């Protein structure tokens, strides 16, 4: 029976090729526009570490007070740490794993004197950073807590920098010259470039175009050698001291902080700890406003930092609007098409076809239009994802990927949407009174 | 020509579903197109704003040091670099800087009129440069004077210094001193010592073009500071007219010849202003293009939908048209009938669409960083869609008008 309906649908569609083409084009464009913007949205709104994101937390301390928020017109408390508090929280060590971190951009001088020095990007972190974010190692490992305390000159390299400096060999134990000082390679990371770069959203805005970070150094060592912060620095007042040391003594915020807490009991006790810490600071006379802190898990943190750009959301909304218009359009055209065949329906009904059969026939026809639109949509989505770098910022566009699930979804959305659009016209077709149609002929 | 509206309404009542679907489609199209046009207009307005820089001759070198030098040594090197750059035959002038217009992101300070003000008066982008800064950028000094060499102070990494003199943009001067006469007046930029305005430039854009900063558009100050950051700094260079390419080729070579202990990224270490402008407006231009594509596709689909459905109606009513023609209706009466019919449906559609458009704008305003859409966009959208409807219906209506009166006598 289905084969018969397919045959009927094909004949009917061939009879009015213009109208059919119009419907297929509408569905194709509508689906492709929504799927292309969806692929971008999906890429930027994804959870970078889904198996663990609910156990990673970002604390925020209100060290600037309510006046500063009024001044800048903000509602949230500052999203980064000053040096004093970052060091205090690391010293108290109340989480399972935790790390303060800041962005650095040192120069690396290759051993081969003929080669030019290169500038690299990275973060100064604590040893617990690597197990906390589950960074994959190709060779070696992170450094030890002992190295943190001893301010050892050790470094973890990216696969790419290791390649550039040493070729593709296990360089653990070898020495790298960073800013004129020798560092021992403790480990080499395997390809690792989480998007969004969740451990430091404040500095990256979430997405970083090309390539992973090149180096990770111990936080204390970087402070010790005076490797300056290369990320954002926000100040409530001009620091009194000058230079990088002055920054460390100031209330300016420039350090990111992340902590792993495995159970809700741990979360509660950490909140108690933060509350107690802020109370103690207030009692010590550091500030005179009520103690305030935030502890957000990673998804909530990414949301509060607007990691998904507004433009991406608005694009998706507008594209979905386009899809809806296309469906309304298709519904109108299907209605016209189906009702034009009232005579045919009348004959079928008079010959004993139940309403269900009429339903099946016309929904098959709608499904066929949807499938054809879906195939066109596949091609256009492919083209759309390939060209998305032309209209969207490169770092975001590069994340949009064409994969099987996106293609399957394109087809599915096209067919389901068209069948939905065909429901009302089909219902109208099934209500055709056989007697009327036969009489008027 | 006497257009009867009543018979049209009666006929439409027999095609309720089709009529409603077309009206709904027109409404949704209007809602989306208005908002898309609004977004396009907003983004394009950003794109064409003048930066105040002589963009055809200025380029920027991102100079980083390969050694960890103290401030004094960095400053010595910066001074030597400037001499070398300014001596190049293709170069007109050069200045060391911590940032430049349209760089994206950048350094901002709150501005207050008194040192103990709790809520600052406004916010300004901060530029640093020596006495060559204004000439290098090609900015126009409209009042006052340029910095003198002896006023230029040296600033190391994260060093807080407040020079006693400052040059501001006209936008900032007007904001701080609405009565005019800003020259000679002073203000506080997050410090305890005031800076006195010695000159005003116009225009000079900010470093960042993020939407939060729209309220502070064009507000910037220039401090006479020679940056000597240990991490690195920017060298802004102005080529002589027509010699940009040569200057961009020669400048990095001259710097490397000065000292090897520097890093100028081979990929993006030297940028001309066309590239800088392109990069900073990347997302604005992208959004405008995307919205443009969606508008065109939407209007095309809606027009095609109207053609399709009207064609169907014409086909369905050939006999009635024949009867009307046989009873004396002229071709233009038939044409007018279908044009009027479409006009009625479109009017209902755009009325609903205007409401939807405003509602959508108000909703996005609360959810995203969007501003209030002016009613002009709705007006333009309404006119576009009414014209589109009339244009789309023209072909089927003409076909209808050519139906011969003989059709009245034929059975289907």
Care to describe what's here?
The complex is a heterodimer of chains A (441) and B (412). Chain A is α+β, with helices and mostly antiparallel strands and 441 residues long. Helices cover 54% and strands 13% of the residues of chain A. Chain A contains 18 helices and 12 strands. Chain A has helices at residues 2-15, 17-45, 65-72, 83-92, 129-133, 145-150, 159-166, 201-204, 219-224, 243-249, 264-283, 298-304, 310-340, 342-350, 355-391, 394-397, 404-430, 434-440, and strands spanning 56-61, 97-104, 107-109, 118-119, 122-125, 137-140, 154-157, 175-178, 181-189, 215-218, 256-260, 293-297. In chain A, strands 1, 2, 3, 4, 5, 6, 7, 8, 9, 10, 11 and 12 form a 12-stranded mixed beta sheet that branches. The two termini of chain A are 28 Å apart. In chain B, strands 3, 4, 5, 6, 7, 8, 9 and 10 form an 8-stranded mixed beta sheet that branches. In chain B, strands 1, 2, 11, 12 and 13 form a 5-stranded antiparallel beta sheet that branches. Chain B has 11 helices and 13 strands. The model of chain B has no long low-confidence stretch (mean pLDDT 88). Chain B is α+β, with helices and mostly antiparallel strands and 412 residues long. Chain B has 2 domains: 5-47 and 283-409, no CATH class; 67-260, no CATH class. In chain B, helix 2 (16-47) crosses helix 11 and helix 3 packs across helix 6 (244-258). Chain B has helices at 5-13, 16-47, 71-87, 133-137, 170-176, 244-258, 273-280, 282-316, 318-326, 331-367, 375-401, and strands at residues 58-65, 91-97, 108-111, 122-129, 141-144, 153-155, 165-169, 186-187, 195-201, 220-227, 232-239, 262-263, 270-272. In chain B, 47% of the residues are buried. In chain B, strand 8 and strand 9 form a beta hairpin.
